[in-house]
């Protein structure tokens, strides 16, 4: 007997037929004698719809400002998961399985106060563990918890992955299965590059980079939690026949295992390519080249919660003036420009220029630590396709390249093939 947390994403619970299919996956594990907790997302498209309603309401109510209260945003957008948790509990009960739904506040899953992007602080798993011991399946609404202000808080987009891994850690589950619409983690997004290959295993470090550089198959925070709490996490498909051979395999279920580097026998130099669209670049021209200038720029941006990513500074010829270029999410450009303008006197720049519609393509691999020339290969491959590079950042295990957004898919495919990831 094992204890298993099963998470089902939006497309897996998109309609009643799919919810029935999910219930069959759950039934398989229950009938194998396991204790099961299930975490569900909202039906696909539902969260987007709810977010749009929230955004449109102030204007519809006659306000001049698009401002809305983050607590009420959470009250609205958390509702999608409430629906699917109840529906799955009903589906399971209809199939003769003892099941009960749980909202974040009922467990409770305690979070911090960052409404809209809250972090899980603590989970009291005792009642769920007790009920699982009695053979009851817990069907938990993902993406939500209870803030210190006693109000519903949501965990940021894609947050049900994090709910699942956190619950798995809290109930000391033997395994956390993230069921989605692809059958594992691929060398790149299989929807962009059909030649992408499924990986049997991927290390926590690489998955963390892939997730934070744009591969939305797992939310970044879920990978962090899996790494810290050593949760055995698999990414697998909900669309396969729940009763196909091997689906109930306890140690080697079909899919991709996220695990320690040591568990991976044949480590490639490059394991994956990630991409993020909707990046924008801001350049501050003719800045005074003096100590404190970076702090004067990035301090106020951080206070405004603007996520700055790549930063490039040029040295000027005579050393007195410089240009600073950095990237922010496209949606934050206007806000960033306003912050910079408000601090223009203290920063001391001539003009601020911006360009939206860029993309960041990244090459990831632990093997880069011990191999030279990995970056050069990417630059050459992109040059051969005539793709211009706007900025580059590197770390021990990744290279990120900023390009025109129109070329993102071509760049992904080009790099995927340049590093031999197409070949099995
Ligand atoms: P869910 O609704 O189940 O949480 P998501 O849409 O959040 O599903 O994540 C699954 C999607 O992630 C896939 O449909 C795929 O297009 C995308 N994806 C991006 N990069 C990868 C990758 N390297 N491997 C697998 N899927 C990826
Ligand atoms: N429903 C939420 C979202 O769309 C959470 C999730 O699916 O993980 O972001
Ligand atoms: Mg997701």
Please identify the top-level CATH class of the largest domain: Alpha Beta
Q: How much of the residues is beta strand, in percent?
A: 25-35%
CATH architecture of the largest domain: 3-Layer(aba) Sandwich
Q: Say which CATH homologous superfamily of the largest domain is assigned.
A: Acetylglutamate kinase-like
How far the N terminus sits from the C terminus, by CA atoms, comes to: 36 Å
Radius of gyration: 23 Å
Structural class call reads alpha/beta
Shape: globular
**Mean pLDDT metric:** 95
The fold-level CATH name of the largest domain is Carbamate kinase
Major sheet size, sense and barrel closure: 8 strands, mixed
Number of E-state strands: 18
Overview of this structure, please?
This protein is an alpha/beta fold. It folds into two domains: 259 residues, 3-Layer(aba) Sandwich (Carbamate kinase); 147 residues, VC0802-like (2-Layer Sandwich), CATH 3.30.2130.10. Helix content is 33%, strand content 25%. A hairpin with an 8-residue loop joins strand 4 and strand 5. The longest helix has 16 residues.
Keywords for this structure?
about 425 residues, alpha/beta, VC0802-like, 2 domains, 8-stranded mixed beta sheet, 6-stranded antiparallel beta sheet, 13 helices, 18 strands, about 35% helix, about 25% strand, binds adenosine-5'-diphosphate, binds aspartic acid
